[in-house]
Amino acid sequence: xxxxxxxxxxxxxxxxxxxxxxxxxxxxxxxxxxxxxxxxxxxxxxxxxxxxxxxxxxxxxxxxxxxxxxxxxxxxxxxxxxxxxxxxxxxxxxxxxxxxxxxxxxxxxxxxxxxxxxxxxxxxxxxxxxxxxxxxxxxxxxxxxxxxxxxxxxxxxxxxxxxxxxxxxxxxxxxxxxxxxxxxxxxxxxxxxxxxxxxxxxxxxxxxxxxxxxxxxxxxxxxxxxxxxxxxxxxxxxxxxxxxxxxxxxxxxxxxxxxxxxxxxxxxxxxxxxxxxxxxxxxxxxxxxxxxxxxxxxxxxxxxxxxxxxxxxxxxxxxxxxxxxxxxxxxxxxxxxxxxxxxxxxxxxxxxxxxxxxxxxxxxxxxxxxxxxxxxxxxxxxxxxxxxxxxxxxxxxxxxxxxxxxxxxxxxxxxxxxxxxxxxxxxxxxxxxxxxxxxxxxxxxxxxxxxxxxxxxxxxxxxxxxxxxxxxxxxxxxxxxxxxxxxxxxxxxxxxxxxxxx
Length: 502
Ligand code: HEM
Hints:
- By secondary structure, the protein is an alpha+beta fold.
- It is built from 20 helices and nine strands.
């Protein structure tokens, strides 16, 4: 009994010592840190998978006092950048030392789809980004405009039908689902060259896969964070937790392999990503993409492209319903530009500057990613910092996008929706890093032009034909989910939709 007690107290003493060592990582390096519980650390504060509450708390406590502050997810230290000049240096000037986004491992043998642009590290990322960048120029993206407008036409038809069917429910529609079906059809068409038909058939296979990719996993926030935090360690375990995306590997691989085979055999040409990627395969046999690499890129375009855009459109309509004057002003711009051009063209869309401000202001209030992450590839001395702060190689550095977007120093009354914040004069007065909706620097969002295009076409189509209002029964309460990597509306967005008189 005495022996057991001795062993138990030794283990406990070691555990306390170890935890104290972990939870004072920042203090030991002269970096201010938030207070953590001596035993549980931040366990009870971890309320979201993107841990935005921890980043906000750290940003609020130390902004103006130190360029970097520290916090913890379990025993893993996180650096939070509180100074926009330093954010710019990390994302742009010293990017060469911060190429990687995260430290998580991936196993290409078990999951060939994991070798995509968002995940890749160092030179592998650089080589792939160089290959893919020409695919996303405005010239290439413009070719897809007509595909997007024809899907938008179906969105209009489906919306009209659903409005008619919802008469008994006061014409209240759940728009996040409708717009998710629109973006699945757009991306399915533009990435795979496939008619997904999810607007016409909400149970279409593609829509179901897309839905499952973003729901059903991460039921327990703390367990999901645990798996992500200790992924490297868990990967070595004989029984390791499955990565949720592994369930979709065979679906995507089969789809891409079949599409590639048919296109190469029948010499089919289409203005879509698959075609542009197949071009990369052919023009350069030695350095070109393999079918698995190609499938991984198409997969990430699908994952990164559909939910970000449908959430952005849903939040925009929600804010427009809350702010009817802004909705009227935007509709007036859309109608006058469409009248001038006779129909919706790429040039007409580009002329709608107020629409551009509305999309940006929506992304400010509802950024897709709560923070941008970068990992230094060598020990990095924070420039000009009198405290001599060094960010050690491999530590996770967070630029807290959401906290910055809600900082009243950059956006007075940040909870107000004000598209004029993005007029040229206002932009010139603000720090360039005060808006990070698409990230920044060489590793920013490669699909931003395409994303903006599908968002704008969707909004133009809907706002030209319908008025959006908050339901009188107050059922439109917006809840942002905490179980997803992306900030998406948890229970959808319910609005009253009124067709406009023709
Ligand atoms: C409104 C729509 C979108 C938003 C708000 C958005 C936002 C973002 C953000 C914040 C990042 C991280 C940037 C950084 O770390 O600096 C990112 C990366 C990325 N996005 Fe998007 N995105 C959107 C649409 C798209 C679309 C349509 C595609 C593909 C067709 C796409 C593909 C990617 C890829 C591949 C990356 C990783 C880039 C790299 O690591 O080199 N995104 N996106």
